[in-house]
Amino acid sequence: MLTLLGETLASRLFLGTARFPSIDLLSKTLITARPGMITVAVRRPTPGPIPVRGFADMLEVLAIPLLPNTAGCHTVQEAITTARLAREMFGTSRIKLEVIGSRRWLDPDGVGLVEAAEILVREGFEVFPYMTEDLAIAERLLRAGCRVLMPWAAPIGSGRGLENRTGLVRLREAFPAVPMILDAGLGRPSHAAEAMELGFDAVLLNTAVAESGDPLRMALAFASAVEAGRLAFEAGLVAPRHAARASTPEEGKAAFG
């Protein structure tokens, strides 16, 4: 269980809903993984493998908390307009705010992100900003009124895991009371477990499940990894040592000769 901004969520695993080949597979995957929240990109209705009406019906039946997403927005105004549309469409003031810089790397535009966050917070949005591990940007987002941060692990869809582990540890330690959801670039369940062991509050992923050979089993694997990583963090991990340390005591050994 995770309590986030006063709401109790069923899991610390958050899932994206894109790239699934059918509504049936997406629905079964969500039922299997039981994520705490799902992201939904705001787009015009277009023909595709998942019909808009069927998608809306699925969301209503499953009743999983939604986090609409300004995915693919490259300017401040585009992100703001998309966020406003999302609030009207889904009836929630939560928004995962993306302002993308490079089209190749899909990295967050930190300056644009802060500008958009300031405007949306003033309009009553609860902004979940997709960011890098930059401490200065994190500080500015918090001053803007963001109460949750969503640093990336690696570029979106890359599956590379925690590329800048040191930077992420520094970010987590700098703002220990701020809820942080590690977002983007996770490719293996072990990546999710590692993030949770570092003290992140949740992880968000999409491609690693949707594009796997068996999304249902992969979703379950990630859900289990997230739970295991969180349990390890709460239990307290053993600090690494440079030398060996015997786990069996010397006292009481049999004496010879």
Provide tags for this entry.
257 residues; alpha/beta; TIM Barrel; five-stranded parallel beta sheet; 9 helices; 40% helix; globular
Note down, in words, how this protein is organized:
With 257 residues, this protein is an alpha/beta fold. The chain has one domain: TIM Barrel, CATH 3.20.20.70. 40% of the residues lie in helices and 15% in strands. The chain contains nine helices and ten strands. It has helices at residues 23-33, 52-62, 76-90, 110-122, 135-144, 165-174, 189-197, 207-210, 215-235, and strands at residues 2-4, 7-9, 13-16, 37-41, 66-69, 94-97, 126-131, 150-151, 181-183, 202-205. The strands form three sheets. The chain has a five-stranded parallel beta sheet with strand order 5-4-3-10-9. Strand 4, helix 2 and strand 5 (66-69) form a beta-alpha-beta unit. Helix 1 packs parallel to helix 2. The longest helix is centred in the C-terminal third of the chain and has 21 residues, at 215-235. The mean pLDDT is 92.
Beginning-to-end CA distance, first to last residue? 58 Å
Structural class, please?
A: alpha/beta
Strand content: 5-15%
Principal-axis shape? globular
Assigned CATH superfamily: Aldolase class I
Biggest sheet overview: 5 strands, parallel
Number of alpha- plus pi-helical segments = 9
- pLDDT < 50 runs, ≥5 residues: none
